[in-house]
Amino acid sequence: MIIIFDCDGVLRSASWEGLYKAYIKLIEAQGKEPYDFFTDMKSFKLWWNPDWHRNNEKLGLPLYKTDEIDTIFHEVYDSYIHLFDWVPEIICELYCKHLLALLTSSAESSVRKFLDGSNKYFDCIVGCERVKKLKPHPEGIHKIMRNFPEVSEEEFILVGDMTVDIQAGKNAGIRTGAVSWGFGEKEELLSLSPDMFFAAPQDLLKIGKEGANNGKRGC
Which of 46, 115, 129, 164 is the most exposed place for a label (fewest CB within 10 A)? Predict the structure, then answer.
């Protein structure tokens, strides 16, 4: 089986405070006033969209400065988050039975830095800089699937913590799994009828009844 993981909220922590401060930094870097967009955390949560392309459009950030924007954002945001302690052990165990991929709306460089030694367990990592459309659009999933042309759709599952993850998986025609420890609300996630729900990280080991790690294929 091929497991496609989301990163933020699934493999590493997510932080509203970090997002809030990072967007303030982005706005100020453009010589603009944050209060023109949101005034406090409550209004920021209403303003924020998981598709950061839309956020950048609302801020009027130039598309050609994507690398600069990513650098400013992650210099702030990454200081608020950490890789979950359970990741190396559980990801290693899953690696012995399945092929693993990662699809993130964050910069690939940021994700690889946090994964550190666990990078080796992922056959394919697709960051935001490698797609034009973010989740819930299925572009990133399709990009990963093309690297496994001999594998049927039924053998893929996307594991995420937000409704856009579940929607992306369904839009791509693959199975989906929702986790309880991320940004998403349990009721909202379950309303989308994911194929699996993971109450704790150890539950990830229930994915697939069998499956051999039958070779690596580059992304």
Answer: 46
